[in-house]
Batch of 3 targets.
Target 1
Amino acid sequence: MGNFGFIIHPLCISDFSRKFPLAQKLPEKFIKKLMEKLPPVKVSRITGIKSETGSAEGCFVAVPLLPEQMLGLPTELVIDKILKACKLARDMGAQVVGLGAFTSVVGDKGLSIARGIDIPVTTGNSYTVATALEAVRRACQATGRALEDAQIVIVGANGSIGSTCARILSREARFMTLVSRDTERLENLAAEIMRETGLAVHTTNRPEGPLKRADIVITVSSSVDTIIFPEHLKKGAIVCDVARPRDVSAQVAKTRKDVLIIEGGVVKVPGDVNFNFNFGLPPGMCYACMAETMILAMEGRFENFSIGSRLEMEKVNEIWKLGEKHGFTLAGIRGPEGFTAYSQLGRNAAKYSPKAR
């Protein structure tokens, strides 16, 4: 049995208040100052992860910082807090540690953390890419859409997840637009894709126009606020939101019934898993970044895996196959009554089909 740790952090003040109810009575400014001083916190033990060929147990450890603090405080201070959380997970028995949400974004995307701890580290980004792309492919199949004919837009394309999605999809797609704030880096990525595949992709730092033309959107920005709203999207669009916090406003699901929002990085865990902690998903499900850490522990692969700004496409394929081996599966499409398998979209799929436009 392998043992892992996973580092989490609150995405909003209310997340922090659920753990510390007294905070509900305190001013937000005071809470944020308090969070800067707090040490990492043991959150829960994770049990019951089991497949025919492996098993794992683990723990959640929290860094009590909000996304805006992760990005706004001095990088050295934030990395020090993450390292302390990783060491606490190690002391709780972890043989590999995963970095969740903005802990995987700060600084050099895990490289400094890996250098500062004596157990291996992963961001989980390879499995996140694999599950996001598989979700998009299945959604296309269910709605009668050919991926190679679709207008694809990737928001946050300069990040490790976005750029890897772009590099892989460029082998299948004919029409792609990359969106990010740093246009120079975008141009470098576009040139790399041209060299690798011959595909000429468009680049921009303004998402509004491309989103209105997009058939498929993969969004994985590092924004602390929602950036995609109902008026931005084309009728029948498939939107894969991989970002945490989410890039897509909750208003899209409420007001745009002609748009298919899919969870790009949610999987069902094999066995009778108990997280002993509610992070917003139905029982037995977790985010792909968490799952990658579990898979490595189940395989006994105690090595640095997905770290740094450039992911290896071979590792994306490898971790997907290992996930299949151990029975990790895509959660499906999230709706008001839970998750529905892509193959069971049924009559509702017609409203997302290109033929319906």
Note: Residues 170 and 198 are 9 Å apart (CA to CA).
Target 2
Amino acid sequence: MMLPTPQLMVIHQPRQAAEYSSILEKTGARVHAVTNFEEANELLSFIHPDLIILSANMPEGDGRLYCQQIRATVQHPRPVLVLLHPSTDVNERINAFRYGADDVLQDPIDKNELAIRVLAHLRRRQEEFSHPLTLMPGPNLIRRMLEQLLVSDKAWSAMSIDLNKIRVYNETYGDLAGDQLIKALGAILVDIADDTDFVGHIEADDFLMTTKPEEAELKAERICQQFDKISTRFYPKGDIERGYLISTGRGGIRRRVPLISVAIGIIHSAQRRFQSFVDVLTSARDARYMAKQRLDSAWIVGKPQDDARASKRSLDINATEEHISRILVVEPDGAMACLLQETLALEGYIVEVTSSADDALAMAKYEPHPDLILLESNLSERQMDGWTLCQVLKSDEELSKIWVVMATSHPDQSKALEAGADLYLPKPFDMPNLLSEVSLLLRSRLA
């Protein structure tokens, strides 16, 4: 797996700067040699070196004071400061640490020793910038990698990768179990990456991978397949057989949540000119959000920014100007049915009401179908009850897309979800909570 090329700066008099740069370039780093502090300041304005090697005695000033200046002015993450000091007096060299140097070496120094010490500092810096959970490159190294790709003349692709429904998984099984799942995803990414790929861990379950454009989609598919293959090991057998988790919200509201899956958004450098590493991350995440609309593991190649904005704008127009959501209330209590109808109508919905499951099924089949059915489980024994109606709706390929909110006082809270309901709402319910949940469901279908 590839890592960002280390950036070094050598500040010394011309002959020594050239000698030290020559040996340090053999470590694989990119070395910028300057011969005075003014040149160094200009260079620092547009590069972010990992390490600066500077002489304590420069014609225009004290290198120790320049260490102080860097510490005071360079934003985090600041470079490691290695001061080369000509004195053999231990006290003088110790005093140099008080000015802010991270290491003080004899000047002149054996070139091999310098190279080894620099590599040791870079190794420690890489460890410091690694994510503590997966030990993969963290945000700072990701930024450096993307910045180097942005100025490269090679084509590249970036993949934004995360897990769907990880919050519910953590709530159900605990954060430690969730961490193991995140580590498993990281291991899959490292396994699939080759020597020219980069993989970083931004935070939580958020990963970034860069690769060759011609390999991006194939690797995204392999990530999805491998994760789906191993993810079942992270659930009890009963949850696997049931096929979903149960999320509990405020007021006892329960909803079915799909099992963990992977969402991947892919962007290519050939799509457009990206302005910064933040632009790359944002664009890849936008594509990933589209992939998250799928219930299973999925990847999507993002559109150019203008096309994406046009699609979003078109969707907003359709949602706000053309579509008014339709709700069917199935409620045997006349007073409650009237209250629900008036309240939902005031929210701008088209509302129909019935107390019969048979009538409700017939009304659901009419075109246009309702977007959501608010269903009481306890209906007349002479006809189909609410549980059966829910099962019938969800077993019909065309009607299964209708949201079903089961409102019931039945003590078995999981029965509604097992019947196929998308949401369980215990009675008596809080009307603001009901309106909020209905709005969330309807908005998600439009998105």
Note: The radius of gyration is 30 Å.
Target 3
Amino acid sequence: MSNKIRIKRGLDIPLAGSAQSRTENISASLVGIVPDDFPGYKWKAVVKPGDRVKSGSALLISKETEDIRLVSPVSGTVREIRRGERRKIEFVSVESDEKNESEAFDSKELLLSMKRSGLYAMMRQRPFDIVPFDGVKPRDIFVTAFDTAPLAADMSEDPLLANLEAGLKALSALTDGKVYLSVPCGSKLNSKYAEVYEFEGPHPAGLVGTQIAAIRPVNKGEVVWTLDAVTVSRIGILAQTGKPDYTARVAVTGPCVKDPHIVATTIGADMATILKGNIEQTEGKVRIISGNVLTGVHIEGEEGFLRFPYRQITIIPEGDEADEFMGWASINPKKYSVKHSFPAFLRGLSKPFDFDARIKGGHRAMILSGEYDKVFPMDIYPEYLLKAIMAGDIERMEQLGIYEVAPEDFALAEFVDTSKIELQKIVREGLDYLRNETL
């Protein structure tokens, strides 16, 4: 029998454009892998344009250990290795030949196969929110089987989850501790290889950081691994067949999408193919986000790729041509606020709103008003932790719980922040600084 936990502090953002249950199969002719999506290691290319690769062939390997790799999700030809400043690799793209030729991995040496097939890089460890350290056994492994981010699709409907139990069995052999599976309240998912917890409440109930804090927090000197149920299912397929599955079920969502629905494609698929003909024509520009509006990555135009964790695309108005009567002082009932600043609360804040990308405010000093606490369910003082990070005070950061957090845990606080401070960026920089100074 599962344990039940209720999350009381949080916020469900009522963004318009939720995906319908219809699923469309789209074959990606071009895919791209972005090294920045896999922090914690330095990556070097082991292919060059024109090389032939199979699904599962290494495109980039870690400079620290060659067994940890980023691989091609399709068979085909390497088209481009895009480099930026100081020759930093921005992405490696592969043109699919649609033959689906695949590398084979040894399912008996599962951990090594996970590293070489790219699945290891799809996990994260806490502390530091990076690809797990090589050679370090985790205290526990936390798996989340649902997503409460704005417009996120129902993860339980992913066909890959038929292999979830096999994946949990494989993970249970990689830790001396427990595997924890977090599911939404009322879920039918269960496992004999994991301890199941049911969660209910607003976002961020679906974030693994919230779940860790509620189940068994991370202390200094401890390491835990985190991943979603889809990645676990891919591990299960690898353990059973020796060939990983790189397909992805993506929710195409947002107020600027003509037909919000689910797309079955490949991880790293090019945006132009997925979004072709499905963007509403508006007076102003639109913002394409790979991911959700809180933590996703802004894609310039349609010349980009589906980014890790490969679950969602959101398209919203840029808002650069907005012309509102009275500006911020308008009492338009279509304007959303977490406070009762606008009359929208009279119509109910659960009804969908057409948000745009404007921050609607100016940058100023952090205000210690407790507004973060209302949407931050972890047993941490977020304002004081952020101030310790900005001051570079390592001892204070440790005392205030930095080992427990990741940037995504502060996304809602960033959304409601009166001062419009980039909180996720501060946390990311703080985690990197702490890792560089203490390891």
Note: Residues 65 and 134 are 8 Å apart (CA to CA).
